[in-house]
Design goal:
- With about 750 residues, the chain is α/β, with parallel strands linked by helices.
- The protein is about 45% helix and about 20% strand.
- The chain is built from 25 helices and 25 strands.
- The strands form four sheets. Strands 7-8-9-12-11-10-16-15-14 form a nine-stranded mixed sheet. Strands 19-18-20-21-17-22-23-24-25 form a nine-stranded mixed sheet, sandwiched between helices.
- A hairpin with a 4-residue loop joins strand 24 (about 630-640) and strand 25 (about 645).
- The longest helix is centred in the C-terminal third of the chain and has 25 residues, at about 670-695.
- It starts with a strand and ends with a helix.
C-alpha cells in the first residue's frame, strides 16, 4: 500500500520503512520536498534509528541522517506545543493588524521546516534581521510590542541552529561560497545506500575514499575489493554486486519478474530436480519473462543484460541470496554471521588476507529465508527443540552450521566452512612453506610404506587439507574407503583424478539425528568388511576411535590408515584417545606417526602461517605413559625463530618403524633414505618450476598426481629391468618428462586462461 509505514527491530535498531511504490514522488528525501515532509511528519510520532524508503529499490538512510531528520521533527513538535504562532508570542499589543502578518510569517516558516529546513532557517534569519533593525529604531510601547516578536524569532533561530542538519548545511555553504540551486544542498548531505527492495541484506560503501586498496578481483560477476583501514587490525572485504548499481528501469524489471513468476512451479514440481537443474530451469524462465516485460514497457535490453538480470533474480529465488557471492569466492575459507543479526557486518577468513570484515549486513528476513532453504535441502528440523542445523551444501562445496535459540541467546547465527574446489597437494604446501622438501618426501613415503598416521592440529591448522594431499600419494592400484560425518574431503574430484574411492557418510556430530543415518562406529565396522582397502577417517571424534584402533591392532586393515584429530602434540592425542575416548593404551600403539600442524604468528604478527610443527613416531615398547616411558620418538621439530622444520638424523637409527619396513620390504636404511630423498626432489622440482615460470597451475592436483604416477612407473620399470632403483638416472628421466610434458601443458592452459 502506498505510504504504508512499518517499524522493524533489526540488530537492536528500530528501522522505519515507508513504502512509496506507486507514489507520484520518488523515495528520496533529498529530491522531493513532499517526501521529506512526509518523513519528518512521521518521525514526530515514531522513534526510529534508521530510515528506509522503499520503491522498486530501497534508499537506506544512516543512523546519522535519520537523527538529523528526527531532530527536525522533535523541534517542530516542541514549537507546536509552545504554540509559537500564538498572539502572546507575537507581540504585547493585541492588534490584529500587526499580529496577522507576524502570524503568517511564523506559520510559513514552521511549514517550510517540514519540507525544507534550510529554507526555513534562511527565511527565519532574514525575518529576524529585518525585525531587529526595526526594533533598534523603535521606542515606547511599539518597541515593547516588537520586542516580544523578536524574542520569539530569536528563540526559534537559536533552536534551529542547534540542529545537526543546519550546522552541516552552514559548513557546506561556507565551503561552497554560495547557495546551491534547488535542493542541491540536500543531495550532498543525504547520499544513501541503495539496494533492490527484494534483498534483505544491506551493503555499505561509505568511507572508501579513506582506505588503501590492497587487491581486487571478480567473483561470479561481482567485483571484490580488499582494503586496508588505517585504524583497523583486520582488512576489509567489500563486494559490489551488479544489482546494487542498476538504473531504475532495471530495478523495475527485477521486481516485476519476481512478482510474475513468484507462484510458478514446473510440471510435477521441482522435487525431481537437483539444485543445478532447478537453477537452469528457472534461469531460462526468468530470461523469457524479463524479455517480455522489457518489450511491453519499451525498455531496450541486450542479450547480455537479460542474462545478467536473470542471474540476479535466480540468485535471490532458487539461490542463496547475497551469501551466494561470498560462498562462491574460492579464496574464502570461512564465513561467519553472528547474532543479533543486523548489528555487525558479516566477517570471513580469506586464504591470502586472513580475517576480514565485509561491507554486508545480513538481515533477519534474509536469514529466515536462508534457513528455510537449508531445512528443505537437509531434510532436518530447525526450531527451539532442535536449535542446531549442521549439514553439507554440495553445490557450493560448503559445510553449514546454523544455531538458534535457546542455544544462541541473541537469535540465529551462521558458520560456513568452504571446501577448496580442487584438492590441496604436497607441492602446494611446500610452495607455501608449510614444511620442507624432505618432509614432503617423508610424508609420501609414510603413505607408500603403509604407516598408520594421525594428522593433528587445532581448527584452521590445515589437518583435513594435509590429509587430502597425502591421499594423493596412495598408489592408484589400491582401493580407498573414506568415512566422514561432514563431507570435507573432495572425493568426487579425487575420483576424477583416477583414485578408486568409496565414500561413507555417517551421522553428523551436531543437530537432529536421523534414524536413517549410520553411526560412525557402525560405519567403520562396515568399512572393515568391504574388502582390502586403504582407510581414511575424516575425523576421529568418539565411538569410532575404539573400533578403529582395535582393527588396526589386529591387522584387520592391512593398509595405510590415516585420520585427523584435534590436538596439539603426540602426547595430547594419546591423552585424548585413551582418557577421553576410552581406547586402551595397547591399541593406541597401533598409531605409527603423529603429524602435528599449527597456525604460527611469527614475531607476534597478526598474520598466521600454517606450519608442520612436529612429526613423532609412536614406539611400541612402553606400558602406561608414553612420555614417562620414552614412548615417543621425535623425527622432526619446528623452530619458529628460523622458520624451519628440523629433521633429527638419529631418529632413523632409533626408529622401530624403520626396522619393521626393512624387514617387510627387504630394504637397507640407505635405500629407504634414498627413496625418501628422491620423492622430496620430485616435489621440490615442481615447486621450483612453478616459481620460475610463475605457474601456480603446475602444482594443482591434476598435474601433481600425474607426476607422482609417472615417478612410480619409472621406478617400477627400473626395478623390473635392473632389480633395484638408480635414483640419479630416475630423477633425471623424471625431470625431463616433467619439463617436456607437464610444464608445456600447464603453460598452454595458463595462456588459454583455463
Amino acid at each position: 500500500m502506498v505510504g504504508e509505514a512499518v517499524v522493524r527491530m533489526e540488530g537492536g535498531k528500530r528501522r522505519l520503512i515507508i513504502n512509496y511504490k506507486g507514489s507520484p514522488y520518488g523515495a528520496d528525501v533529498a529530491q522531493y520536498p513532499q517526501v521529506m515532509k512526509d518523513v519528518i511528519d512521521r518521525l514526530q510520532s515514531i522513534d526510529a534509528d534508521e530510515l528506509v524508503l522503499s520503491e522498486y529499490y530501497e534508499r537506506i538512510y544512516s543512523e546519522e541522517q535519520t537523527r538529523w531528520l528526527k531532530q527536525v521533527a522533535d523541534l517542530i513538535t516542541r514549537l507546536e506545543s509552545d504554540v509559537v504562532w500564538g498572539p502572546s508570542h507575537l507581540g504585547s499589543i493585541q492588534d490584529s493588524k500587526s499580529l496577522a502578518p507576524r502570524h503568517d510569517t511564523v506559520v510559513t516558516i514552521l511549514n517550510a521546516l517540514h519540507a525544507d529546513p534550510f529554507k526555513a532557517y534562511l527565511s527565519l534569519a532574514s525575518e529576524l534581521k529585518t525585525q531587529q533593525a526595526k526594533l533598534n529604531t523603535s521606542s515606547g510601547s511599539g518597541q515593547d510590542d516588537l520586542g516580544v516578536y523578536v524574542k520569539t524569532l530569536s528563540f526559534m533561530l537559536a533552536e534551529m541552529e542547534k540542529l545537526e542538519l543546519i550546522k552541516k548545511m552552514k559548513v557546506y555553504v561556507t565551503q561552497l561560497g554560495k547557495l546551491p540551486a534547488d535542493r542541491g544542498i540536500y543531495h550532498s548531505l543525504f547520499e544513501v545506500a541503495i539496494k533492490p527492495s527484494f534483498i534483505g541484506s544491506r551493503i555499505f560503501f561509505t568511507g572508501v575514499e579513506n582506505l588503501e586498496l590492497v587487491d581486487q578481483y571478480v567473483v561470479t560477476g561481482t567485483r571484490i575489493y580488499i582494503y586496508k583501514h588505517p585504524d583497523k587490525v583486520e582488512l576489509l572485504y567489500f563486494i559490489n554486486p551488479p544489482e546494487y548499481s542498476l538504473p531504475p528501469e532495471k530495478y523495475f524489471l527485477l521486481e516485476k519478474t519476481k512478482e510474475v513468476v513468484a507462484g510458478h512451479r514446473p510440471d510435477g514440481g521441482i522435487g525431481f530436480m537437483d539444485v543445478s537443474q532447478a537453477r537452469q530451469y528457472f534461469h531460462k524462465i526468468y530470461v523469457g519473462t524479463i524479455a517480455d516485460l522489457a518489450a511491453k514497457n519499451n525498455i531496450k535490453l541486450s542479450i547480455e543484460e537479460k542474462e545478467e538480470l536473470a542471474n540476479i533474480v535466480t540468485r535471490y529465488t532458487v539461490g542463496y541470496g547475497i551469501m551466494e557471492i561470498l560462498l562462491s569466492d574460492k579464496q574464502v575459507t570461512d564465513v561467519y554471521v553472528d547474532s543479533p543479526l543486523g548489528m555487525r557486518p558479516i566477517y570471513l577468513v580469506h586464504s591470502k588476507y586472513g580475517q576480514c570484515q565485509t561491507n554486508v549486513v545480513f538481515s533477519e528476513d534474509e536469514a529466515s529465508s536462508l534457513v528455510s532453504r537449508f531445512r528443505a535441502l537437509s531434510g532436518r528440523p530447525f526450531d527451539e527443540a532442535h536449535p542446531i542445523l549442521d549439514f553439507d551444501l554440495e553445490d557450493l562445496q560448503t559445510r553449514i552450521a546454523v544455531i538458534g535459540r535457546p542455544l544462541s541467546l541473541d537469535g540465529i547465527a551462521f558458520a560456513f566452512r568452504l571446501h577448496k574446489p580442487t584438492p590441496w597437494t604436497l607441492a602446494q604446501f611446500l610452495d607455501n612453506k608449510m614444511f620442507t622438501p624432505f618432509a614432503a618426501g617423508l610424508f609420501s613415503y609414510f603413505v607408500d610404506a603403509q604407516a598408520s598416521m594421525l594428522i593433528v592440529g587445532s581448527r584452521g591448522s590445515g589437518k583435513t587439507s594435509l590429509l587430502q594431499a597425502m591421499m594423493q600419494e596412495i598408489p592408484q592400484n589400491l582401493r580407498i574407503i573414506v568415512q566422514e560425518d561432514t563431507q570435507e574431503i573432495p572425493v568426487p574430484q579425487l575420483k576424477k583424478l583416477g583414485f578408486n574411492i568409496q565414500r561413507l557418510k555417517t551421522r553428523p556430530p551436531l543437530g537432529k539425528q536421523s534414524e536413517a543415518e549410520v553411526s560412525a562406529e557402525d560405519a567403520l565396522r562396515t568399512a572393515l568388511r568391504l574388502g582390502d582397502s586403504v582407510l581414511i577417517v575424516g575425523e576421529v571424534r568418539s565411538g569410532e576411535a575404539k573400533a578403529l584402533y582395535e582393527a588396526m591392532r589386529v591387522g584387520a586393515v592391512g593398509n595405510v590408515v590415516m585420520g585427523t584429530i584435534h590436538g596439539e602434540s603426540a602426547y595430547s592425542i594419546w591423552d585424548r584417545v585413551v582418557n577421553d575416548l576410552g581406547v586402551p593404551t595397547t591399541s593406541f600403539k597401533a598409531t605409527d606417526f603423529s603429524i602435528v600442524g599449527a597456525p604460527i604468528r611469527f614475531g607476534g604478527s597478526l598474520k598466521r602461517a600454517r606450519r608442520i610443527v612436529e612429526v613423532t613416531e609412536v614406539k611400541k615398547e612402553w606400558n602406561e605413559d608414553p612420555l614417562a616411558e620414552n614412548g615417543f620418538l621425535d623425527w622432526m621439530k619446528f623452530d619458529a625463530g628460523r622458520d624451519e622444520l628440523e629433521f633429527f638424523d638419529k631418529a632413523i637409527g632409533q626408529s622401530e618403524w624403520i626396522k619393521r619396513v626393512q624387514k617387510i620390504r627387504g630394504l637397507t636404511v640407505e635405500q629407504i633414505m634414498s627413496e625418501i630423498n628422491a620423492r622430496a626432489e620430485t616435489k621440490n622440482f615442481l615447486v621450483e618450476l612453478r616459481r620460475k615460470h610463475d605457474l601456480p597451475r603446475l602444482l594443482e592436483a591434476d598435474f601433481t598426481v600425474r607426476a607422482h604416477n609417472k615417478y612410480l612407473l619409472m621406478a617400477e620399470a627400473q626395478r623390473e629391468e635392473f632389480g633395484s632403483v638408480e635414483y640419479d638416472s630416475l630423477l633425471s628421466e623424471y625431470k625431463a618428462w616433467v619439463q617436456s610434458t607437464l610444464l608445456k601443458e600447464a603453460m598452454a592452459q595458463q595462456q588459454a586462461g583455463v
